Amino acid sequence: MTSTTTPTTGQRQTFAKNERLRSSERISVVITTGRRYRADGLSLIVVPAPGAGLRAGFIVRRKLGGAVVRNLMKRRMRESYRRIKSGVRPGADLVFSANAVADYHSLSRA
Fold first, then answer.
1. According to the 3-state scheme, what is the secondary structure of the chain?
2. Is residue 16 a part of any domain in this protein?
3. How many domains is the chain built from?
4. Start-to-end C-alpha separation, the chain
5. Structural domain contains residue 77
6. Mind listing the pLDDT tens digit for each residue in 43-96?
7. pTM of the predicted model as reported, rounded to 2 decimal places
8. Is residue 9 assigned to a domain?
């Protein structure tokens, strides 16, 4: 089992419930009004949300594969985000969208 703390700072790298975008309405707003960035089979959609901290949601389209493949991609995206979120400035809602199956290394580079 891996540790949830960073070796250099000792800070916990968690993805708490209050950091998640769970409302389908809010995710739809982010998708329709946000700015989109694309890289290596992954899209990031960003909407400024002052005072809301940093919240993230993860979506995978059905055309990517069955439930097992989609859930695998969501787990990989969440894990990659969890590891880098300490370097992201708060005050935005983010939606990550997978357009192709990728491994952890590819997601970390994107």
1. CCCCECCCCCCECCCCHHHECCCHHHHHHHHHHCEEEEECCEEEEEEECCCCCEEEEEEECHHHCCHHHHHHHHHHHHHHHHHHHHHCCCCEEEEEEECCCCCHHHHHHC
2. no
3. 1
4. 25
5. yes
6. 999 999 888 789 999 999 999 889 999 999 999 999 988 988 888 888 999 999
7. 0.79
8. no
